[in-house]
Amino acid sequence: MATDPRATLRAGLPDRYLTPEDLAALLTVPIETVYRWRKQRIGPPGFRVGRHVRYDPAAIRDWIDQQTARDTA
User: Fold this and answer.
1) What is the pLDDT of residue 14?
2) pTM, two decimal places
3) By C-alpha distance, which of 3, 5, 73, 29 is closest to 43?
4) Looking at the DSSP assignment, which residues form a beta bridge with residue 17?
5) Nearest residue to 27 via CA among 44, 54, 6
6) Can you say whether the dihedral through the CA atoms of 11, 73, 35, 24 is positive or negative?
7) I need a surface site. Which of 37, 44, 56, 70 has the fewest CB within 10 A?
8) What pLDDT digit, counting tens, does each position of 6-41 carry?
9) Which of 62, 66, 54, 67 is nearest to 23 (CA)?
10) Is 11 exposed, middle or buried (CB count within 10 Å of its CB: 0-12, 13-18, 19+)?
């Protein structure tokens, strides 16, 4: 049974790393946007586990905080 990544983040940091699909659902953006961010190195930092990309929820939260601070400055 899959959980909603947004609900997981709202409840606190999840106990697992997020997939690109989780990140897209969390931010309500198309998956293509997540991949473009990664290619252009402008999105949240991800890392590889073999051929799979994963995102640390703490790094995502930091990235969101940086975006918020930049947009409100």
Assistant:
1) 61
2) 0.77
3) 29
4) none
5) 6
6) positive
7) 70
8) 666 666 656 789 999 999 999 999 999 999 999 999
9) 54
10) exposed
The per-residue pLDDT for 16 is 87
Q: How many CB atoms lie within 10 A of CB 54?
A: 15
The CA distance from 1 to 64, in Å, is: 27
Q: What is the DSSP secondary-structure string of the chain?
A: ----HHHHHHTS--SSPBPHHHHHHHHT--HHHHHHHHHHT-SS-EEEETTEEEE-HHHHHHHHHHHHHHHH-
- Rg from Cα positions in the chain: 12
